[in-house]
Amino acid sequence: VNHSMSPVSKFDLSGNYLLKIGANSFIGLSVFTHLQIEFEDITIPPDPFFGLNRLKSLRTQAGYYCCGMSVRRPHNLIVNITTMKGLSSLLHLNMSHSRIDHIVSRILVNSTTLRSINLSHNRISILENGAFAGLTSLIELKLDFNALPALHDNVFEGLSSLKTLHLEENYINEIQSNVFRNLKNLKFLHIGGNYIHSLSGNV
Fold first, then answer.
1. Which residues contact 5 (CB under 8 A, 6 or more apart)?
2. pLDDT above 80 (res 53)
3. Cβ neighbours of residue 59 under 8 Å, at least 6 residues apart?
4. pLDDT at 102
């Protein structure tokens, strides 16, 4: 990326054949407020979004572009704690269809302004306790169409403002008794299309 280019607030890289993001690709481009990336088997360095401290909307999608069509391939993008640092102004994060299979604890702890997260249509089977800790402004969380087998206590720790939670179309067959305990503002819970056979009295 040319760091001397004139100000551009929206950057759309979809419909390309992106294989790599350099360690300093976005340094000096703090003017960006919206970023959309489409990738195939991408190599992601630590903190690839460093420098985008004004970014308000980030969308990623797995696939490649061929013959005018976006085609998805069965590989994984594992998101870890370092990949999401530096997004201190982010309001909306859309990483649906990004082949994510594991969300680690406190992955977005620096993005306290987040209002919505869309992680639907991935392969998430592991959601660590405290994965969304620190996101006290989050209102909507979408985890539908994944591979979650269970919901453990503290997995939604810190989501005090959450109003809408989508968990439909997973493989959930176990819900521990304190999963929703601290979601004081939750209004809409979507959990259809799972394998739930019984609910404990405390759920």
1. none
2. yes
3. 35, 36, 37, 93, 94, 95
4. 87
Are 198 and 175 in contact by the 8 Å Cβ rule? The answer is: no
Assess contact for 155 and 176: CB atoms under 8 A: no
For every residue of 113-141, DSSP letters joined together read T--EEE--SS---EE-TTTTTT-TT--EE
Instruction: Yes or no: say if 20 and 42 are a contact pair by the CB < 8 Å rule.
Output: yes
Strand ranges across the sheet with 188-190: 10-20, 34-43, 57-62, 92-94, 116-118, 140-142, 164-166, 188-190
pTM, to two decimals: 0.83
Tokens of 117: 């997260």
Amino acid (one-letter) located at 9: S
Q: How many CA atoms lie within 13 A of 12 on its CB side?
A: 2
DSSP code at position 30: T
Beta bridge partners of 38: 61
